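Posting for a labmate who doesn't have an account.
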Amino acid sequence: MSRIGIGIPLFQSLQPQVAFDYMRMMYHFGRRYQEHEFFLIARTKSEQFRARNAIVETALRTGMDYLLFLDDDHVFSWQETCEHSQYDFLKKLLDHKKPIVGCLYYHRAGDYRPVLMKKTGEHQYTFLTDDEITGGLQEVDVQGGGVMLIDMKIFNKITPPYFEPEQQSVGKNLGTDIQLCKKAKAEGFSVWCDTSIVVGHLKQENEVVTHLNRSSFIADNIMKGHIADDWMAENWLKDYREDVLEYTGLTVDKIVEGAFRYDDISAKEFSKEGDLEEYYRSRGVSQICRQMYYHSKKNVAWEGLIILKQFRQGVRAYGLDFGCGTAPIGFELLKMGHRMDFVDVEGAAGYEFLKWRVNKDGYHHRVGWKIEGPYDFVLFLDVIEHLGDWEAILDNAIGRMKEKSVLITNFFKNMDFRNPEHISMNHAAVRDFLLSRSVFPKSDMIWMKDDNYMGGAMNVKTERKKKK
């Protein structure tokens, strides 16, 4: 009897269509695959490589024979028939007896390409074209990690970490699926895809991408101009990245290496009981590398663009960027004409880079380096989770905010509970603290200070009781 782990990295929650499909799949596995034992291994993710590593480590500890990686946005019953034959894909994959084998699915945006790749250079891969899809079992260089069956024997040869931070945003196309396939092939294992099995990819609720409809989605994208949006999301970071390269004197490849080194060291050396300020001062240039790498991620770049669009052109304001680090967003606000106070750990490399950048561009007359106020807005971006004394810091900042000013934070979108530096991840506690200080949510990232809202903070508990 084989032991099969079903590993699912979860972003925040499953869409109902995926949840229903996966429940039917599990039921089918239990009834039709009685020669196997199944174990569900689900891990939340904000950075995919951490979740995938945790899943592999769990599968190794619990003695799995196979690991079936699934993403949280696939649909096997996309044809919406009453039959359950679509869930026989696993038997077909097992029967192939390959080290790594998966199914065919397509990207859910952009050019809706098949998520299969061939190697074209040392660090270069390109997606297969439609005429290269055979409709049967075929060997590939990279199988998409969204539906991938792995013989656990390969992890006897591959050394950890099995997955590392993706490098797509800084010049190399090395996502987690590419990394694993590359490492497996280097140890003599082959990678395959049964392209006769087509799996749906949820574009959004009730829109599942398959080979039958992807051409219409491509046409829609071209008409709407969405393909160009990726360029818009990254373009606002152009000056920031150029300044990082100038300041550090490093190439993009070295920036990536520095970012990885930062992650490796933090996993070994970070201690929340230690001197946190001294720890962040000790990170050196790798801190700048990690921040450039992180802010260049597509979803993070988009988040920054969304924040910047909240500020109207021509309206000057006074803001605080607390825990600013290299401050790509805060610096853009400075360039827009706003006055800024930047506060972080003195001597930390990211903070020193920001000071250099302010002086280089001649903005020192509109910049302060300590908390003053009163502020029209305050930024707490990628910082609350790092603070042991977050209550005192937030209380100080809120006390310096004007009435109807805004607090902008991405803290409540952060689900990376595995990062050792994230020592304050109690979302409910922070939310209750903000409410108790008359700071109320306008969206998931924007909060407004309003002492008169619902009669002030004293009415928060009463309002909750009414809702119940």
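Reply:
Got it, the structure tokens are right above this. The radius of gyration is 24 Å.
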